[in-house]
Give the backbone structure.
Amino acid sequence: IMEIKRDIYLQQLIDRKDNGMIKVITGIRRCGKSYLLFTIFKRYLLESGIDTDHIIEIALDGIENEELRDPKVCYQYIKNAMKDKGKYYLLLDEVQFMPHFEEVLNSLLRLNNIDVYVTGSNSKFLSSDIVTEFRGRGDEIRIYPLSFAEFYSAYDGEYDDAWNEYMTYGGLPQIVGLKSERQKSDYLKNMFTNVYLKDVIERNKIHNTDEINILVDVLASTIGALTNSLKISNTFKSERQMSYTNKTISKHIDYLVEAFLISKATRYDIKGRKYIGANQKYYFTDLGLRNARLNFRQQEPTHIMENIVYNELLIRGYNVDVGVIDVYDKDKEGKRIRKQLEVDFVVNQSSQRYYIQVAYDMSSKEKQNQEFNSLRNIPDSFKKIVIVNGNKKPWHNDEGFVIMGMKYFLLNADSLKF
């Protein structure tokens, strides 16, 4: 099996090497964190002249290291491995298996000859604790399943086939090595239930598992649609005669976000320059998992494309919101009415901003008008981009919008700068 280079993440580790902070690699389980640390980064350390016995590796999710989940035992083990004054590199995998792990890491921070790297698959216990515990000495590197470009680099075949495959089975690294569709779909379904959901249920001690199971289905079938916990709660009442309070729903949604299964995009009022609460959009971190959850039944390309673009923007380090613009129009009687137009994504990175529409089908004048209309009403001069399905090279239309094909957007890391 071909190795997929994860250069974008390796570079982030190299840039942070020996910076006196704890490097925390976070992301959904099975997205390649351990591989990045124990194979790719370790190889880099060895090639740059670090001795094997100065690299301490501990995988806490392995049964062989069960006794090392005890913080005192683990700390002692690490101290014993440090035989001299030379620099040591600690690679600690799935640190959430150790209670009070932050105390161990804090004690290690006091030693000046160790550089610490840890991975973890739950943001809550990581970010909230790490920020407070390490008082700003935790440095987070967020990892995602394979981007389309990473996936394509290991794919044996044409772009169109790769694209269909990626839209269906997503980018968990394991998927690349599986041959048949049956294997892929079984793997994803099994992972969803027995790894991801089981994790969320056990960690948060959820008793009523029916609820969260149905919630996951609801979120999976509404990716890219505006929704909120009250709306979901009402759906439960009317369609299933179930009482599932919106308070519980929003707690459960938070658990899914903390486990990196889904992410939420908040609405931003472009003219008013403020966030609007209530409705959010939810996207899945891995589309293969989402599709498997729905038994590969709901394959609407529009929303799937939107989800892929959203994930790609996060991988590139942008902050992504959903845009809203208020416009005023006249109705048939000439009365002024307020309409809200949507901009799929408002994308920020320091002082850079882009507005992006994702359009699966731009064949008719009417479709084009619909996509362009929201962009026309944005009162500033930041770049406006429409990403269309297919492999069109980017071009500027006469209104100054950039139109680019999905292929160009995904395979060129700087595509937004066109």
Notes: The radius of gyration is 23 Å.
